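# step 3/5: fold
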Amino acid sequence: MDPITILLVVVVCVIVGGVFASLGVHLLPVGGAPAAMGTATGIATGTIMLMLGAAVTGLFTASTVATFSKNILLVALSGAVGSWIMMGVTMLMANIIYAFGAGVVPVSGRVEVDPITKEPQTPYKTPQCDGHGVPNVSYISGMVGAFIGGFGGAFMYFALLNYAKFEPTMAAIAAIGIFVANAILAAYNIGGTIEGFHDPKFKRLPKALFSCFFVSLFCGVFVGMVAFIGGLI
């Protein structure tokens, strides 16, 4: 491919990865400080930290596969699976701590009936609390979000590594940087805690995707020009 075509491919891959990152963040069950006290659903950490942990794990698995495969779909899927496993284990351990440490049942605070299992939620929710733990619907939403986010991060990594010709370390750093930029925008859009796709805040997603598209476009053009000026493409 000629340099202009490669530049366009890099930009498109970064945009796709950035938009996927934003979508993934909105699907995660994030509870922040209230979740740490068992008074809200989700993982007791910030949106960015949680998604960054999943992204880094996904990049580890993606970079391993990228050493022997030049298939962008295979590398992206390996990143998605790595992120998926990390998030699944994190939510499982959180539920174990909530159930056996705090003595609360994983239950949604945003819906009266679980949209997936149809289990009642209200009878098990402590009064004046916004749910507990990671209920079934949030767990499934988090797994999907981690898969999508990990796929997007690995997708960007592959493009930077094989098209922009970055060194593996620099490709990983650049991919994480772009990922975090999109995660921060998503976090501001969420504004605190979110349970998953059934949460009313999920309706704000189009605004975040619109913003992340332009941020990713800028980042894609920037890294592409760096590679072009540096003689990598």
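# step 4/5: annotate
Helices lie at 3-27, 32-36, 47-66, 72-102, 136-162, 168-190, 205-229.
# step 5/5: archive (pending)
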